[in-house]
Amino acid sequence: MLSMILSATKTIKFGLGSLLALCIAVSFVSVLAQPYTPTKIKHPEIQFRQVPVDKHQLFYAHSGDEEKTGVIFIHGTPGGWEAFEGYLESERLQQDFLLVSIDRIGWGKSSIPSKEIDGNFSLQSKSVGELMKQYPDKKWILVGHSLGASIAPQIAVDYPDQVSGLLLLAGSLKPTLGSPRWYNYAASTWLVASLIGDTMKYSNREIMGLRKQLKTMDKEIKKVNLSTNVTIIQGQKDKLVSPKNPAYVVDAWKDNFASIKLIELENEGHFLPWRQAPLIVKSLYELANMPPKDIDQ
Hints:
The chain has 297 residues and is α/β, with parallel strands linked by helices. The protein has one domain: Alpha/Beta hydrolase fold, catalytic domain (Rossmann fold, 3-Layer(aba) Sandwich). It is 42% helix and 19% strand. The protein is built from eleven helices and eight strands. It has helices spanning 2-32, 85-89, 91-96, 121-132, 147-158, 182-187, 190-208, 210-221, 245-252, 272-275, 277-287, and strands at residues 47-53, 56-64, 69-74, 97-103, 140-145, 163-169, 229-235, 259-265. It has an eight-stranded mixed beta sheet, with helices on both faces. The relative contact order is 0.14.
């Protein structure tokens, strides 16, 4: 009888543990889900290319005028080039810019790095650097969202002659604010990891390494004096990235960039590219020193 009770207790504990792991996994997936669905409509003006990066391949979509100022959109985690598909489809933007949206290394049709180097800002930066080399003498504005906004300043540091502007949307930028959340630690356990799938596991590895990468980047930024202009847009109701990040940048990096403009949105959350397109387009034109226009979405 005792053995039966002990066996039943173990079964209950395992069942409760599995249920808890499932709840954590569901919470983790819902937190990281992006609020966009790639369209199945083909737009002939959007073309696709790949560029080699060491042992990897960077896949990207592009549209617009190759003679104009370049814009590179950098998605968060998880994500893909389609996060900025609406911008690449805009006829007005196509007239004034060369628009590029990438699958960051590890996502979409770009190569997946080994566990030792995934989430590494240096690799992400180098991949964008190789892309920019395909368009000699062109200046670029980088538009990053979430983790893409965290990575974008590293690219400006590594390629100061190519990057003229940064438009950072809801990005973790202060090292101490880039710490993993409880669900990131939970998702690193074997039980939860077995429930969330490869995509979310890779996303979690990027987040787990974020603080270390931000700390390294922060030190590098404080050693340089860049001619890059920066605009930061942050929602004050962002539940994924602390709204305290921009204040740190304005204070800590003020001597390292040509200018830093902060736009705080009192009633906005994390998903700025899809909720604040007109403001983003206006900020893009300002960074390009061009009269602002509205996006035709």
